[in-house]
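DATA CLASS: polypeptide
GOAL: derive structure tokens

***
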Amino acid sequence: MTTPELLHRALHDPGPRPLPDEAAHLLLTLNAPPRLAAHLRLVHDVAYELVEWLAQRYPALQLDREAVLFGAATHDVGKAVHVRELSGPGSAHEEAGRELLLAHGTAPELARFAATHATWTLPDIGLEDLLVSVADKIWKNKRVPELEDLVVRRLAGTSGRTVWEEFMELDDALTAVGEDAEERLAFQAAHPV
């Protein structure tokens, strides 16, 4: 099977929700590694679950749902250039991803997620950025208390409930999402780097 066929499978095989058309088209244009496409589908799928949960639980929450979903679908696009970071550590893909998105006509407010998904401690970080970061962790059931605490504080500020109450709600939601991590890891592993 050729790389384009493998990439097509990663983008369209049954499993996680499909990526937004713009994100899928970009991955095809870049001839991205199939593993990257599979990973982006998984994180996008988890982000979808999170924004659905938030919409039901916090109907008054000011949240750019489409930005979160696009951010999750493209957060690691820089790994199309820095392929070694698909299977090892590295952060070169973050700025490279933002630059790639900008070069392909993505608005700066959407391209930012490629650069912010691993830097949630910045002072002006938005809730949308935090949610992309959470989705990028919880898809494989990785819990990052400092990151989750930032989300909890934002939710408590919106709801007027205590931080503890919001923690319990978010913890339950993330635990439920994390239960499917083995299936998601298997889906990603089925697609080559």
Q: What stands out?
A: The two ends are 14 Å apart (CA to CA). Residues 51 and 65 are 6 Å apart (CA to CA). The chain is about 65% helix and 0% strand. The longest helix spans residues 34-57.
